[in-house]
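User: hey, got a sec? need Sarcosine oxidase subunit delta folded
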Amino acid sequence: MLILTCPYCGVRADETELSPGGEAHLTRHGPGSSDDDFHGYLFTRENPRGVHFERWRHAYGCGKWFHAARDTMTLEVFGTYPAQTTEPPRDICDAITARHPGWNWRDFS
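Assistant: Yep! Here you go:
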C-alpha cells in the first residue's frame, strides 16, 4: 500500500485518502498556445519504470494538492513537497541519488 505524508497538514495517509493527479512538473498550455504545445500537454506523459514525480490531493484531509517523488517499481517514497514548488527539493533529489547512483532530474524548463 502506498502511504504519503501530506506536506501541509502532516498526516500520513494511505492511497485511499488521496486522489492521484498525474505527472508533476508539467508545463501547462492553454488558450493561445500552439496546437503542438497543447497536444503535448494533453497527451505526452512519462511513464517511467523507477523514479517518478506525481501530483496528489489529500482528498479526505486538508484537500490540498502536493507533489510526491516515488519509485514506481517498489513504491518507495522519497518525499513529498508543496505543489507550488517548481522543482524537487534538494533533500529529495539527494535521497533518490543515494538509492539510484547516477540518477539526475531532467530539466523541465
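Quick note: The chain has a mean pLDDT of 89. Let me know if you need anything else on Sarcosine oxidase subunit delta.
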